[in-house]
Design a protein that fits this description.
Helices cover 67% and strands 3% of the residues. The chain is mainly alpha-helical. The chain has one domain: Ferritin, core subunit, four-helix bundle (Ferritin, Up-down Bundle). This is Ferritin-like domain-containing protein.
Length: 236
């Protein structure tokens, strides 16, 4: 008998956010009424990774430099592996992954279009930064779903090819210092739209009443974003 996971009795949840590589204290926020249903969490997480794969694949086609093609192919492969891993979790619980992801396609495609820059380097920076923020957010949410959440967290922690993109961005900055200010400005512009995706991942019917519960999480996400920017030599 299939145990339909979205029909299970909801548990009291707390969201714990930890920047990757940080073994210190975590920020915990009570999300008993804000954390999404499991199928909503899985559907969005899976479709986001599919979108990153598509964007990076387009980047491969759009570059002539072989070393860059290879670097982007590794990053794209990592995103596809994450997508497949989450899809496997959905399938194992008796649901159709396409049906689970479909409700979020329109909004997440719109988000992805907003983060495609006028230049390939801007798009690569967008993939690196938005994937970092959203992986952090979904890693935090994963702690709400027991064993299934642990599996998704393990998938999200797998290598993401981010170092490949960082190398390309740093080479770009070193080639012409004007890139530094341009990419710094672009990186700052990405924050608002990415936080809206985080907000949209939660239960919409309670957000207005419980908005203050999310603020500490936003603060942590923005702090991790600033550290990524600083590590690349970009002003945040």
């Amino acid at each position: 008998m299939v145990n339909w996971f979205w029909k299970r009795k909801p548990q009291r949840r707390s969201l714990a956010l930890r920047s990757r590589g940080d073994s210190g204290d975590t920020t915990r926020v009570d999300f008993a009424e804000l954390a999404p249903e499991l199928h909503r969490f899985l559907g969005q997480a899976a479709y986001l990774q599919l979108g990153y794969f598509e964007t990076l694949t387009r980047g491969i086609r759009g570059t002539l430099e072989l070393s860059r093609k290879e670097a982007l192919s590794r990053a794209a492969g990592a995103a596809l592996d994450k997508h497949r891993g989450i899809v496997a979790v959905i399938t194992e619980h008796g649901d159709d992954p396409t049906e689970v992801m479909l409700p979020f396609r329109e909004n997440l495609d719109a988000f992805r279009r907003k983060t495609i820059g006028a230049r390939p380097e801007e798009t690569l920076l967008a993939v690196y930064l938005t994937a970092g923020m959203l992986d952090d957010f979904y890693l935090a949410l994963a702690s709400s779903y027991g064993e299934i959440g642990e599996r998704v967290a393990a998938i999200l922690r797998e290598g993401d090819g981010g170092s490949e993109i960082v190398s390309i961005i740093q080479e770009t900055i070193e080639s012409d210092n004007e890139w530094r200010s341009l990419l710094s400005m672009w990186g700052r512009r990405l924050v608002g739209d990415t936080l809206l995706v985080c907000r949209g991942a939660l239960r919409p019917e309670r957000l207005d009443a419980d908005e203050t519960r999310i603020e500490p999480v936003y603060t942590e996400l923005m702090g991790a974003h600033a550290r990524r920017m600083d590590a690349m030599g970009l002003a945040s």
